[in-house]
Amino acid sequence: MKRSALIVTTISSFLIPFAASSVNIALPTIGKDFSMDAITMNWVATAFLLSTAVFLVPIGRLADIKGRKRIFLFGISIFTLASLFCGISTSTKMLIASRVFQGLGASMIFSTSVAILTSVYPISERGKVLGINVASVYTGLSMGPFFGGFLTQSFSWRSVFLVMVPLGIFVIILSLWKLKGEWADAKGERFDFSGSILYGLALVILLLGISEISKPLILIGSFLLVIFIVYEGKTRSPVLHVELFKRNITFTFSNLAALLHYSATFGITFLLSLYLQYIKALTPQEAGIILVSQPAVQALLSPLAGWLSDRVEPRVVASSGMGITALGLFIFSSLRENTPLGFIIGNLVLLGTGFALFSSPNTNAIMSSVERRYYGTASAMLATMRVIGQTLSMAIIMIIFAVYMGKVEIAPQIHEIFIKSLRVCFTIFSLICLIGIFASIARGKIR
Fold first, then answer.
1. N- to C-terminal Cα distance for the chain?
2. Of 33, 280, 336, nearest to 159 (Cα)?
3. Are 213 and 399 in contact (CB under 8 A)?
4. Based on the domain organization, do 368 and 384 belong to the same domain?
5. Residue 169 within any structural domain of the chain
6. Disulfide check for 131: which of 47, 201, 348, 360 has CB 3.0–4.6 Å away?
7. H or E segment at 289?
């Protein structure tokens, strides 16, 4: 049972980041095909993230009640079908709409895979298997740019989406065949529909406000989020147990650290993909080969970091990883048009080391700090922090691009301005990571 759960969740955890990173490398080609400006290109990535963020917490709670395996299978099926529609899209609107449904499927997978692993493995083995899970995520990230570049250059950007269809079907078959049993530790409890709708509405308005730099939307979204928190504190069976944040310092600060880390790092691939193809004039495949160095190191070191967090306090390992990441981001704030490719690869290796040391121990700390009946909620909350962080990362880039470049295509005459905006982004990201170190340290001990 344990091995089957590990195999299925490892493959699915590979598939989603593979999809995200392979699409990122294809964005410049997609942009040319549909005549998109830089901000619209950004929305191809942001639509997926926003959709995932909105559904994660309600679906995590639903999985605790109805069964994590059931929701997991629904998620893979929706993701696979949406990938097909992305690949046959005939317009920008159709592509972005299909990405929204991809995000829905991804939210079902994100909110259940770690919860399933935590359900079947004892706490003494948890760090190791979560490290393997994180390694599969980074393997997907590392293979995405390479194969995404190869597919885009050899066939078309559509093949990047279409290749996910047989992969998704394979995971569905394997799940039905190998993943036995069901896990529903909150079975019989009421699902909070009102809270779920309020949560989704608040998050959509807030993240849209941030992405569009709209103060009214930010204020409305923040107000609705406060109402949601008050409502959840009073309802008998909440979709999000706010008491977890009030009573559990480890859970609270570990999630905050995850939010800050992903806010500071998700935009790296997007920025460097544009830099390598527009400034260095590399092909999508060549850019993918360079970008593979960061997640490849993450994949190699994540199981070791997870194993280490079973023996050393996770906050020590995770905080050192956050510090290394901050250093790597600061180094990238000095990028110039003539920066050597070897320098870029070396710094990506440094960032990969920081990522690995942070992610597995931080995941272990979060999942080990809650009771079994909250595993789905905790897994969904961690994924929510990741996706909100990723959305904020892209929003920061969108804001900087809008301020420095405006709504224009990236052409040779604005390359100097583009590089300046890129350096500003990396400077902001390094400062966010520095704040994250304090959040990571403040989580306290878990053993």
1. 28
2. 33
3. yes
4. yes
5. yes
6. 360
7. helix 284-291
